[in-house]
Write a structure and sequence with these properties.
Largest sheet: none
Distance between the termini: 33 Å
Radius of gyration: 19 Å
Order of helices and strands: HHHHHHHHHHHH
Number of strands: 0
Amino acid sequence: MSALSLAARDSSTMLRRNLLHARRYPSLTLNLLLTPVVMLLLFVYVFGDVMSAGMGGADRAAYIAYVVPGILMMTVGGTVVGTAVSVSNDMSEGIIARFRTMAIHRPSILVGHVVGSVLQCLMSVLLVGAVAVAIGFRSTDATAVEWLAAFGLTALIALALTWIAVGMGLVSPNAEAASNNALPLVVLPLISSAFVPIDAMPGWFQPIAEYQPFTPAIETLRGLLLGTEIGHNGWLAVAWCLGLTVLGYFWSKATFDRDPS
């Protein structure tokens, strides 16, 4: 077999391993999935009228359309926390040391985690999206091309954040530390444009919300799903995703290739 065939075979084996772990121990995934669903219901049914009134008198239906793209991005950020925990568990429980002694393609261990996490992110987004549709979200102005672009953007941000989460898991001494280290991936969407427009925030806070990866991703996804203008946010979102992917990949690879102490 060629080196490429061996890499593909070992990566698919590691992918199956991680998907089996997710199926056998679904509690972590369900807990992470529950957070965006609760946030969606909370901001729509508890804060919806107040939040929409602060956005120029929009009704609740308009606020649902506004908040759902942010919740979907929050779903991705929350799901990859489970990846950091899973990687940290593998590192601390000794299975990685066993894999290092086997004649396998070493990067396939990380590839299995990454591909498995991206698939879980997309499934989680679909489930949260189904809840959003059930409570009234509609995307009638989006074309088929825009829907396809929205799916691609979601997969791209999931890939970028997953590589960052893998790096966090590799440098964490245990699962609790990995969960804490990955917490910014959950917090950043809360201080973005997910729930209110940046213009409605205090002036000193606007740069914090604007100059981060989630805001352009949310604005791009919002424009694609609602058929509205995207402006420069599309290029910014893609640039953030590519930059984080490259950073996370080389960080994870360098950490993983380091000889264990």
